[in-house]
Design a protein that fits this description.
Layout: H1 3-6, E1 9-10, E2 16-19, E3 24-29, E4 32-37, E5 43-46, E6 50-54, H2 60-81, E7 84-91, E8 96-100, E9 103-107, E10 114-116, E11 122-127, E12 131-136, H3 139-152, E13 162-165, H4 176-183
Antiparallel strand pairs: 1-6, 2-3, 3-4, 5-6, 7-12, 7-13, 8-9, 9-10, 11-12
């Protein structure tokens, strides 16, 4: 039995969950509206204060989909109430970020400014020029935008310059000097 799949999802006040035909689920709350089509084999039962996901059998595919479906629904409920946030740090001399309207302008050591326009439903903010905040109701969209921004200048392993997630540990390589000392027998 799936431990995740059997847990009910509490519906906070101000949030509505509707299940349409072909398992089209629509969740509406204070932060907006999310909709997603879930697997047709899973049955979704909406009660007054909670939502439950039921599976038709103990087949391997159904057991795998049970926890996934429940997690996707729970993330939709959390997204329309609290939302999701990812924070990115910029490290490097002269590396900066600034907002121009809705787009993010980045100075990342290239010969030109890099402009990034977020997808619909995701908002960007910057603090102090070196911290980028990605917010939104859709967890997948927030993670995708954060990954795309991080890919503009990945952290290089020798000096640690680049864009990284806040709190991410980057292991630095020792570099050339450590190898030379080993070769000389020092």
């Amino acid at each position: 039995m799936s431990r995740v799949g059997t847990m009910p999802i509490a519906i906070p006040t101000g949030v509505t969950v509707e299940v349409g035909e072909r398992n089209e689920v629509k969740v509406t709350g204070p932060n907006g509206e999310l909709s997603r089509r879930l697997h047709r084999a899973m049955s979704i039962e909406v009660g007054d204060e909670e939502v439950r996901v039921m599976r038709p059998s103990d087949a391997t595919e159904h057991r795998a989909l049970h926890g996934l479906t429940r997690s996707l629904l729970a993330n939709m409920v959390i997204g329309v109430t609290d939302g999701f946030e990812k924070r990115l740090e910029i490290h490097g001399v002269g590396y900066r970020a600034e907002m121009q309207g809705r787009s993010l302008m980045l100075r990342l050591g290239y010969s030109h400014l890099v402009s990034y326009e977020p997808t619909e439903g995701v908002e960007l903010a910057e603090e102090g020029g070196t911290l980028i905040i990605v917010r939104g109701a859709d967890k997948q969209a927030v993670g995708q935008v954060a990954a795309e921004i991080r890919a503009l200048r990945p952290v290089e392993p020798y000096k640690g310059k680049g864009i990284r997630y806040q709190g991410e540990e980057v292991r630095l390589k020792p570099g050339k000097a450590a190898k030379v000392g080993a070769d000389l027998g020092v």
